[in-house]
TrEMBL record:
Cofactor list: FAD
Membership in a protein family: Belongs to the oxygen-dependent FAD-linked oxidoreductase family.
Pfam families (alphabetical): FAD_binding_4
Gene Ontology MF terms in the entry: FAD binding; oxidoreductase activity
Upper classification of the organism: Bacteria, Bacillati, Actinomycetota, Actinomycetes, Jiangellales
Keywords: FAD, Flavoprotein, Oxidoreductase
Domain FAD-binding PCMH-type residue range list: 2-172
Protein's recorded name: FAD-binding protein
InterPro entries: FAD-bd_PCMH, FAD-bd_PCMH-like_sf, FAD-bd_PCMH_sub1, FAD-bd_PCMH_sub2, FAD-linked_Oxidoreductase, Oxid_FAD_bind_N, Oxy_OxRdtase_FAD_BS
Entry superkingdom: Bacteria
Amino acid sequence: MIDRRPALIICCANAHDVATAIAYARQHAMPLSVRGGGHNVAGTAVPDDGIVVDLSRMREVQVDAARRRVRAQGGATIGDVDRASQAAGLAVPLGLVSQTGIAGLTLAGGIGWLRRAYGTSSDNLAAADVITAAGERLHVSETENPELLWGLRGGGGGLGAVTSFEYHAYPVGPDVSFALVFHTWQDAQSALRNYREWASTAPDEVSSFAILWHAPALDEIPAEYHHTPVVTFAAMHLGDSAEARHDLAPLRDFGNPIADLSDVIPYLDAQRAFDDDYPAHELRYYWKSLYLTGLDDDALGLLTKINEASPSPHSTLDIWQLGGAFSRVGAEETAFGDRSAPFLLGIEANWESPDDDNANIQWARNAHQAMSAYSTGAEYLNFPGFYEEGEQVLRASLGANFERLIALRKQHDPTGLFSRR
Ligand SMILES: Cc1cc2nc3c(=O)[nH]c(=O)nc-3n(C[C@H](O)[C@H](O)[C@H](O)COP(=O)(O)OP(=O)(O)OC[C@H]3O[C@@H](n4cnc5c(N)ncnc54)[C@H](O)[C@@H]3O)c2cc1C
């Protein structure tokens, strides 16, 4: 999907290499991008005719079990951090697909299965090592360069190259309760209404979402439903299995599901549950988002129509349940912005052929436009389309924090070496 030709890709082995690469870009006034996990859907890690500071060989993870801290190099993936953390019985709040990089994820927020228990990845960023455009090497924490820590927590980057991220970690697993329930399209509306009621009272140990999409061809799903529209509810519960059975029952017992794949499974498996839906280099992606003010019946009706109009069976409309710890961080406490919305809508156009680019991108844009009537107007910076709206996406995501973030970027990167948007 991302077809760009950088002039130079510098594969870094350590922070010294990163500093050398930045100095070279500065001296030659070349555009520069850092590549973490390379998963940004807008392709912002790759500039045309510029320099890629590639951190994909910097993936070391160290766990301090006594302090419940996990330190990872800037090129680590979610899977790298999960494996090392779980070996010590810990987990860091990260995202849902294990190949995603922690860097881009954290710098723009980071929401996953632990968001309602422990917040975003960026909320749990305790410290970081940053190399600025001027080549300064800064340690960042609550007490050292705290304004920079504020900006790294969800401001979308552009403040320098982060060579290491240090996170708060929590005892999780080794097993967790994982719910995955599929309903027919005929029952979609009633099942979604039931989900809305359940989500408003579910405890913080649960993070869930509803997916409007087309059923994958899994053995556990009757063949007649394969590739037809369905609604799926997915949830992770961190409590003990009896508590989880009780709390997830309203979701699992409702109506007549066509498949219920819920189980108690290793946390590491749950973290990989959707990996197969995002095969490397096989699909094309265009993702947008909107924070929703609620999920009234009109909004649900519109969402079902949008799913029916999807030109690709791989595309999804994801309704992420928010609240809990996610919502208890003040809008100005971190650069991330307002947390008051009860749901985030992810509009994921995912498709196979370049011939279908226009139809799929237009579907996502139409969905975004139509659903904006039910939104707070804010967007999530990790699902930015192609950044074709430029600064507008950053404003829509950061809200009142926008000016403060821009001032911070100007302070640490006056010539805009790192700023692509
Ligand atoms: C399959 C898939 C699943 C996803 N699932 C989730 C999810 O569950 N939750 C969620 O919140 N998001 C999710 N996302 C979105 C994801 O968080 C963003 O795409 C994020 O940008 C990926 O980070 P990365 O390091 O892999 O990206 P990259 O493309 O490497 O980088 C993204 C941006 O950050 C900059 N950057 C990268 N590394 C550094 C660094 N070390 N220092 C400074 N700047 C850096 C890059 O220059 C670029 O602008 C998913 C994306 C994909 C493709």
